Amino acid sequence: MPVNFLNLAGLNVTDFKESETEYHVRATPVAVSRLCPHCGRSNETVSHAQRKLVIRDIPAHGKAVVIHLDVPRLKCRPCNQTFTAMVPEVDTGREMTERLARWVGRQALEYTYADIAKQVGVNEKTVRNIFDEYVASLDMQFKRETPVWLGIDEIKLQRFRAIFTNLQAKSLIDMLPDRYGTSIVAFLASLPNKSRITHVGMDMWRPYRIAVQKVLPNAKIVVDKFHVVSKANVAFDTVRRKIANADKGSSLGLKRAHKLFAKRKNDLNDEQYLTVSGWLNSFPELAAAYDLKERLFQVYEATAPEEAWGKYLNWESTIPPEMAKAFRPVKTAFRNWKPFILNYFDDQRVTNAFTESFNAKVRAVYRNGRGYSFERLRAKVLYTDMFQKRVRVQEKVRVRKQKFEDVAMVRFMCMGTAMDDEYETRIQTRVANLGVDLSTLEQAFDSGKF
Predict the structure, then answer these.
(1) What is the C-alpha to C-alpha distance for residues 238 and 230, in angstroms, rounded to an integer?
(2) What is the average pLDDT across 29-50?
(3) How far apart are CA 203 and CA 184, in angstroms?
(4) What is the Cα–Cα distance from 255 to 252, expressed in whole angstroms?
(5) pLDDT exceeds cutoff 70 at 252
(6) Fewer beta carbons within 10 angstroms: which end of the chain, N or C?
(7) Residue of 377 and 289 predicted with greater confidence
(8) For residue 155, what are the CA distances in angstroms to 164, 251, 374?
(9) Helix, strand or coil for residue 358?
């Protein structure tokens, strides 16, 4: 009988049996806690009865491990309550070892709840509850650097979820289960040193703007360029579908070419350019919509807000009446979000466009992956060590020059503050976690190692 089979210092193995699917181990505790959970006393408890517990442990050699544990039931004389003695290394509430609970939490990042439940011999609800607690503990321990440029975007995984990025480091900070205004406010308020945020890049979702103005009143809001020009692509697509519906003979061809139409003219190769030109020459209305779409990009070639606004007004004046409805969302965006769109043309060109590739790949993983829930996907993305982007940073700190003498300490306590000459400035180096490096994460997606 392998007496060290469990490798748990708190349990003595007394018997061992093996079946085709499980190891059954009988054990007794080396010691128990006699502390009464009802009144907190431990020196006035007596043995009351014996209880046999069936405890699960980490699987071994592809088999579930079941521990049959004899534990005393105790009675507390002062409060007259009975309770089961606590055994070190055993979570009696869940009927498993503490190390199994930790193992289940880690494994749930990789495998489905059903797979883990079957392997261990518990129900899926237990696995889910353990995982929720595991992620909550990771959330409390995990520390990220608050960025100077913060990005707010969203990704649709069944429903819209808000994501936060470090725009300068091109890294992911966090993902929320929704994008409600209250959730955004709570997240922003939780950021340490949030006063260091100078710019916030976002799309045109009003709750984002309200939340930032409430929590970060001194930060400059910048509407992301991608979300503005994408409205022109949508407007062009509206015209394309209208033409395709009217001309059934060209419908399939126009549909197949939609990805080429979405690309910038300068990004087309020779073959693609010939295909696009052929369609534009065949349909003047399509050509006019394509020209409008392309010329909106030219607004972003401006070097100052005033120049950009002038370019936009000129662009708007050239919209043909028959396309006014299709391009109305572009006009509405510029009118409702003018100051925040024009902030892009100030001294800093803040953009969150780099997240689009990440969003597309996360959607694919979520849709085609191994049963990922949003919670598991978020935890795996945020807490996998190899994805973290860490850098060494130097910062100035004020420290006392030397230990206070008694007289100096009295003077300090009486004045309520220390004299300036009692401090000196030093350069301190520390490791800062900038969040999840998106380029590293995308490589994991592409390689199938995620």
Answers:
(1) 13
(2) 83
(3) 14
(4) 5
(5) yes
(6) N
(7) 289
(8) 11, 30, 11
(9) helix
pLDDT classification of 395: cutoffs 50, 70, 90: confident
CB 213 within 8 A of CB 236: no
Is 82 within 8 Å of 74 (Cβ atoms)? yes
DSSP string, 288-346: HHHHHHHHHHHHTT-SSHHHHHHHHHHHHHT--GGGTTTTHHHHHHHHHSHHHHHGGGS
Against a cut of 0.85, is the pTM above it? no
Q: Residue 120: which of 40, 54, 194 has the closest Cα?
A: 54
433 pLDDT higher than 60: yes
Kindly state the tokens that stand for 422.
Answer: 């009692």
- DSSP states along 219-270: SEEEE-HHHHHHHHHHHHHHHHHHHHHH-HHHHHHHHHTHHHHHS-GGG--H
For residue 230, which amino acid is it?
S
Residue 42: per-residue pLDDT: 74
Q: Which amino acid is at 154?
A: E
Q: How far is CA 165 from CA 113, 264, 342, 358, in A?
A: 29, 26, 21, 11
Contacts of residue 156, Cβ cutoff 8 Å, sequence gap at least 6: 363
> What's the pLDDT score for residue 421?
63
CA 350 – CA 225 distance, rounded (Å)? 9
Residue 148 host element (H or E): none
Name which of 72, 135, 148 is nearest 105 in CA terms: 135
Cα separation, 315 vs 310, whole angstroms: 9
Q: How confident is the model at residue 407 (pLDDT cuts 50, 70, 90)?
A: very low
